[in-house]
Specification:
The structure is a single chain. The protein is mostly helical. The protein is 61% helix and 0% strand. The protein has helices spanning 31-34, 37-70, 75-102, 118-123, 125-138, 143-166. The longest helix has 34 residues, at 37-70. It is elongated.
Length: 180
């Protein structure tokens, strides 16, 4: 399963037999389709959780930076560490914003690197959480991407169904299977 989707039961969405089903979004399942009361509750709780997680991460980073400051490594090392944390946080925030607003396919160049820049994404986790918080104030993070994918899939399905209903049975009478 993709890291952006977790199985979460959402309200049953009436769809014709064979129609594409909507994909679930982390923390929201498929509640984003109907936007019911469950969706609204999650839309209120997710930003609070992201903000609390960002505060906890910032506290951990502060303890780490204070440890380096207390080690008397020097002002230059301390300044480099603070700059590195700030840069990593900005990069992670930019990547997460693009990921949530445009989808994984839109990530190119350095943003698409998962393994080689893993340390940057971990150190910049606070920035990524803050981007998640801000995005969750606008919509369920990733909702626009999933909604666009789902609508395209439904349109393709409807076009296929319409073309099948317009096509009469093209077999001529008596031209069935051979008897043999």
């Amino acid at each position: 399963m993709s890291e952006h989707r977790t199985p979460s039961p959402g309200p049953a969405v009436p769809a014709p037999e064979g129609a594409p089903a909507p994909a679930g979004i982390r923390w929201f399942g498929t509640s984003w389709v109907g936007r019911g009361s469950d969706y609204r509750l999650r839309r209120a709780l997710v930003p609070v959780g992201a903000l609390l997680a960002a505060a906890a991460g910032a506290l951990l980073l502060r303890f780490g930076v204070q440890g380096v400051q207390m080690s008397d490594a020097g002002g230059f090392v301390y300044a480099l560490l603070v700059a590195a944390v700030a840069i990593c946080s900005c990069l992670a925030a930019l990547r997460n914003w693009k990921l949530l607003s445009e989808g994984r396919e839109a990530l190119t160049g350095w943003m698409a690197e998962d393994k080689s820049l893993g340390a940057v994404w971990i150190i910049g986790g606070v920035g990524a959480l803050l981007a998640y918080f801000v995005r969750s104030l606008v919509e369920a993070p990733g909702e626009a991407v999933e909604r666009a994918r789902h609508e395209q899939a439904v349109q393709r399905y409807e076009r296929r169904q319409a073309s099948r209903s317009r096509r009469p049975d093209t077999r001529a009478p008596g031209r069935g299977r051979r008897r043999g």
